[in-house]
């Protein structure tokens, strides 16, 4: 079960302030998967789609089902606002595939792992990211009975591997196509749940700390005492402060 206590969520936010986007995504994933006991390497090895499902589930636990999304139409520039269901995404991306995916056609047989976050991060730093990713993820490749090195796979086989990887882990690339209500054209946009969730968490944490400041000033309570209050009781006390 993901963290839901205010003090724990605040600790995750505080730790993420000095991190880059990748570091914040990892912190959020650690919060979403306490069952892994803080094992960062295990998290980084998970397929990207599994991480996305975990982050959607965390978002649902912290802030509810409904997600407000704003997007500019790529055709006419209109400001589009719509809702998404975090629960639907969490359930739809939560499939657990086989550890190895196999393709076999035209004399080729290839087995490979679906890329994890660590694979994509390492490949992005390489001079040739595609070759680096193949080297990390291809377990073995055979053509007409003869073994072939991952970096020697022809372009057609590489494309087939990419297609099979996407089919095995569709949540690795969450792309939306939204029809504009003004012009009717569709706009494609990637939904980066880690960035979206961090933005929400940052706003929530700053609002909560302001509440702590106001209640501490008014009543002399400590931060732990204020955070131990339910959101409903905190709001009630804040209303009383405003009435004074």
Automatic annotation (TrEMBL):
Alphabetized InterPro entries for the sequence: Baseplate_phage_T4-like
Organism superkingdom: Bacteria
Organism: Streptomyces violaceochromogenes
Protein name: Phage baseplate protein
């Amino acid at each position: 079960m993901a963290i839901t206590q205010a003090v724990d969520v605040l600790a995750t936010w505080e730790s993420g302030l000095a991190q880059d986007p990748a570091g914040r995504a990892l912190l959020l994933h650690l919060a979403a998967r306490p069952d892994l006991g803080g094992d960062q390497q295990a998290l980084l090895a998970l397929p990207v789609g599994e991480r996305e499902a975990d982050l959607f589930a965390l978002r649902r636990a912290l802030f509810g089902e409904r997600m407000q999304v704003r997007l500019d139409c790529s055709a006419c520039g209109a400001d589009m606002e719509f809702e998404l269901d975090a629960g639907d995404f969490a359930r739809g991306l939560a499939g657990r595939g086989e550890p190895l995916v196999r393709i076999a056609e035209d004399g080729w047989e290839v087995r490979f792992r679906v890329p994890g976050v660590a694979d994509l991060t390492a490949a992005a730093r390489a001079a040739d990211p595609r070759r680096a990713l193949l080297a990390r993820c291809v377990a073995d490749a055979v053509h007409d009975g003869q073994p072939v090195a991952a970096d020697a796979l022809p372009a057609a086989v590489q494309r087939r591997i990419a297609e099979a990887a996407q089919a095995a882990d569709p949540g690795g690339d969450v792309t939306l196509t939204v029809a504009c209500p003004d012009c009717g054209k569709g706009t494609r946009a990637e939904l980066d749940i880690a960035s979206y969730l961090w933005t929400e968490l940052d706003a929530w944490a700053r609002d909560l700390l302001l509440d702590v400041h106001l209640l501490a000033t008014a009543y002399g309570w400590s931060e732990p005492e204020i955070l131990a209050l339910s959101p409903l009781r905190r709001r009630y006390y804040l209303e009383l402060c405003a009435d004074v």
